[in-house]
Amino acid sequence: MRTRQFRPNLFAVVAALLGAAAFAAALVLKSIQVGRAPADYYGVLRWLAPEIGLAPFAVLLSVVAVILATAARDWRSSGVALLGSGLAAAGLVITFTHAPPNPAVIKSQCMENMKAISAALAAYEDDHGALPPAAHWTQALRCYIHDPAVWKEPLTGKPGYALNAAIVGRRADSFAADPADVVAVFESDRGADAAGGPELLSRQPRHYGGVHVAYLDGRCKWVYIPHTEKVQDLGLTWDPDAPPSPTSGPHRWLR
Questions:
Q1: What is the pLDDT of residue 72?
Q2: Which of 41, 50, 72, 225 shows its CA 20 to 30 Å from the CA of 66?
């Protein structure tokens, strides 16, 4: 006697495949969020979002498959459809119960990091009579910053800050420009101990289309970078020997 081959109906098969895809995508996103930087999460999200979006369709097809299988007394097809529905539902639960990285929180943490670095620069100048040299400047500030996470840009998880090379080895009171207006530290993607000028600004702005810059007086501000605008035209002061602009006030940070 020949055994009848099991052939689930098409709706059940499609529902199971869509449910499995949604469940796998949700698991991958969850694992990346736990162990990787937010930038990696957002990069993968662009590819996996469509798969997760298939979950509602998997549930709908599962309902149709169960109805058809029940009418035909095809209990195994009904089981396959229910499996797909269960996987899709689990994928949705995983997706909606984990909180993705919050861009506003990441932006705020980046500002706090840069404020800590600018405060360390001021403390270093107080102790040594001048700002640190460009070579290994982050190492020179290690005794003032005890949390290693400060040096990592929170979006990428990598060293993400550069020192304005025009101010290294100088005292703030020797600047012709107002020290509170001269960029001290800025976001960069050139790795640890980067030092230079506006050419080192992040090529891809990380926070709402802009970057952060910090000053020796402890201020940190966000600067929007339009795609059509050159970084040299952002209205930032990089040269400490540039004459004060007519709109700048008296020197607010001279010791």
A1: 63
A2: 50
Phi, psi angles (nearest 5°) of residue 83: -60, -45
Q: What is the mean pLDDT of the chain?
A: 77
Terminus-to-terminus CA distance in the chain, angstroms?
A: 99
Q: SS in 3 state form for 166-234?
A: HHCCCCHHHCCCCHHHEEEEEEECCCCCEEECHHHECCCCCECCEEEEEECCCCEEEEECCCCCCHHHC
More confident residue, 96 or 24: 24
What confidence tier does 252 reach under pLDDT thresholds 50, 70, 90? Answer: very low
Please work out, in degrees rounded to the nearest 5, the angle formed at the alpha carbon of residue 178 by the alpha carbons of 142 and 255.
60
Q: What does pTM read for this prediction? A: 0.65
What is the pairing mode between strands 194-196 and 210-215?
A: unpaired
**Residues 116 and 124 sit within 8 Å (Cβ to Cβ):** no
- Is 206 in contact with 187 (CB distance < 8 Å)? yes
Lowest mean per-residue pLDDT among 67-76, 146-155, 158-167, 202-211: 67-76
